[in-house]
Amino acid sequence: MVLNLHVIQTDDGYTAEVPSIKGCESWAHTEDEVIDKIVSLLKFYLQSPSDKKMIIDRARREHPLTVYKIIFDK
Q: Rounded to whole angstroms, how far apart are CA atoms 57 and 36?
């Protein structure tokens, strides 16, 4: 399964969302921290085991938006 992850740089940090899953969004001070938070939230929403491996690949950057692809087996 492949899902898009949108990370947006704001004045006070970063917001992240998985547009295809309603309510799957988070905020943090750094980009790495917001990605970690959104991956944990995504695993909760999908009821995925916490040890399940997910690959996060940056697809494109258009300041302030960065789009990542999250790749994993469901």
A: 14
**Which two structure tokens, joined as six digits, stand for 71?**
């790749």
Predicted TM-score (pTM) of this structure:
0.92
Tell me the CB-side half-sphere exposure of residue 39, using CA atoms within 13 A: 20
- CA nearest 4: which of 74, 73, 71? 71
Sheet holding 2-10, edge to edge: 25-28, 13-17, 2-10, 65-71, 55-62
User: Spelled out in words, what is the top-level CATH class assigned to the domain 2-71?
Assistant: alpha beta
Domain ranges of the chain: 2-71
| pLDDT tens digits, 3-51 | 999 999 999 999 999 999 999 999 999 999 999 999 999 999 999 887 8
Distance between CA 71 and CA 63 in Å, rounded?
Answer: 23
